[in-house]
Specification:
By secondary structure, this protein is of the alpha/beta class. It is built from eleven helices and 14 strands.
């Protein structure tokens, strides 16, 4: 039986992240999933069976940050490594593939047996992690990078880097009928623009605010958390409505109420070319998508997404999206099917077998 030992930098969540999406679909692989301790300090149930083939354990000690100078740092890594070895023995894991998700996990390399290292490079890390990420990349038999920029970033350290972008679940948005949620019924008949994602101080709000001011007949729905400071700014615009977080299983119902789906840039992520998971959710609905981006951004779906670079362009692209034909809706849904998490997982499994990590 194929085996994977995953070191996750995030806990297992009800709303799955990239790591969970990929591993959950590897049905013929036994997986031990090690998550970091919770911030609350509460003891998590050990050995949780979250999928028939995935068992989750929580590491006993918090992993120190790369810039930490705690004298107990080495001791913490040693204790966590001992916990992992004991868990491997309990589950009869022999030389599993080690699936890493963060640079700091390089400190655990060589502390327990494994049959090869995979690094899922899914985001850009801060400068203090550069050396650790280089160590991890140098040790990896294969790196799966989520964007062309990340491919370029890690390629000097590894000869086997494969572009595996984020994906989506098109089946979640496969309903033909548009059912307007009760809380949104007051906006029936209006032009509604919706966005998935938290709104913090790092989100560049100018395109949203300027467009909301220019088109007071449009309604902008924000599906996600909004910080208190940002909320005070948004309150000045009556047609911007913070809906709050939405259960990922119900998101289709809310997106169906929207005429256009949009995304904004983050000021703390200059040059970031990683396409967020929710963009694939947008595509699966078939609805027009307008996205803010850097001027030199390489558009992965130039014929399916309206890209804007400033507030004026955002308003113009939204107006153009309202005039598009139904043909583009079918094109977006086809892109979503080709970019599903199931397709991404199949690609990864083929690569793991081709590289000899799975025999």
């Amino acid at each position: 039986m194929k085996q994977i030992l995953c070191l996750s930098y995030l806990p297992w969540k009800a709303a799955p992240n990239r790591t969970q999406q990929l591993l959950s679909r590897m049905n013929d692989v036994r997986i031990l999933f090690f998550e970091p301790p919770g911030s609350s300090g509460a003891k998590a149930e050990q050995g949780r069976r979250v999928r028939p083939h995935i068992t989750v354990y929580t590491l006993p000690y918090s992993l120190p940050e790369a810039k930490s100078r705690s004298p107990f740092r080495r001791h913490i890594w040693t204790r966590n490594a001992a916990f992992i070895r004991a868990t491997m023995e309990r589950h009869h894991f022999r030389n599993p593939v080690l699936w890493c998700t963060a640079p700091e996990q390089a400190r655990l390399l060589g502390r327990f047996p494994c049959g090869g290292v995979v690094y899922d490079c899914h985001r850009e890390w801060e400068t203090e992690y550069v050396d650790l990420e280089s160590d991890l990349a140098n040790s990896a038999e294969v790196i799966f990078a989520a964007s062309p920029g990340l491919v370029q970033r890690v390629s000097p350290c590894c000869d086997n880097v494969v572009l595996v972008p984020n994906g989506g679940n098109p089946l979640l948005c496969a309903q033909d009928e548009e059912n307007l949620p009760g809380v949104l019924s007051i906006y029936a008949g209006k032009t509604i623009l919706g966005r998935i994602g938290d709104v913090t101080g790092s989100v560049e709000l100018s395109p949203l605010l300027d467009t909301a001011a220019a088109r007071r007949d449009w309604v902008f729905l924000l599906f996600g958390r909004v910080t208190q400071k940002v909320s005070a700014t948004l309150s000045k615009y009556p047609n911007i409505v913070p809906v709050g977080p939405i259960n990922h299983l119900e998101i289709q119902e809310y997106l169906s109420a929207c005429t256009i789906l949009f995304d904004l840039k983050h000021s703390d992520q200059p040059g970031n070319d990683i396409l967020p998971e929710h963009i694939y959710t947008y595509l699966a609905t078939g609805k027009p998508v307008v996205m803010m981006a850097e001027p030199d951004y390489q558009e992965p779906f130039p014929d399916a997404i309206y890209t804007a670079y400033d507030s004026t362009g955002f308003l113009r692209r939204c107006s153009k999206a309202l005039e598009e034909s139904d043909r583009l809706s079918e094109l977006r849904q086809e892109y979503a099917r080709r970019s599903s998490w199931a397709v991404r997982t199949e690609q990864i499994m083929q690569i793991l077998e081709a590289t000899g990590l799975f025999t």
